[in-house]
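1st attempt posting a full record on here, be nice pls
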Amino acid sequence: MSKVILITGAGSGFGALSARALALAGHTVYAAMRNTTGRNVHRVAEAKAYAAEHQVDLRTVELDALSQESADAAIAMVLAEAGALDVVVHNAGHMVTGPTEAFTPEELAAVYDTNVLGTQRVNRAALPHLRAQQHGLVLWVGSTSSRGGTPPYLAPYFAAKAAMDALAVSYAAELARFDIETTIVVPGAFTTGTDHFATGGHPSERTVLPAYEERYGALMDQVGERLAALAPADADVSLVADAIVEVVGTPHGERPFRVHVDPANDGSEEVSRVADRIRAEFLTRIGLDDLLAPHKVSV
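the predicted structure (as tokens):
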């Protein structure tokens, strides 16, 4: 059944690929991005051209995850234009690289603001509607770094992704009695096909960098090369979009709680399997096992 879907951070990378794949699957998709009349105007044009070429319902909407007002306006526009909202995909994110010590607390907070607080702003805009209709799907695009291998020089991003994962897990239980389903799609390291590294930030304070350069040298280049070497030849970034399309197309109540897409196999799936089992066992022990799956509650 066709659904109305909003996906954040859909100007490039996982977001753009997923928006197009979902539209090809027959859904009405709102590719949300910021600066749609400024630096992303060409991406709006690309989405419009793609929709026309493939005869699909792919639209764009202005949404800056750093602004509650922008999130509210985006959701209001989707509801006014499409008359519905069935799926929210939390994909917007920002990566930074460099020695952890070199980042100021404010720079760490900015990464957290995009990757974690941005999801909260969108939820606060969208969930009143999903709760009222007592149906929906919230899909979170996480990262294997939350529980798997964690190479250095990516700490602010990893910490934010871990926080987002924790938020998603808590939300899953709190939304279950509104019959709102949760799935966490967990991509591994894809060294090509996204703009994560190309557009990633760096610490502005440079005084400590020489000490790290002396001991660690071109560490990020080494990490990138070795991650690329671990991945199979067919590890295309489109695998993440394919996984999202499959989750959305799965019948309500039957969707997996967590889906890993990790060509390098950094161990996250194994750790998450244990963590999710313990979560289910604990909720069952305290008599809250009904929170493990979405369902309607009569009041």
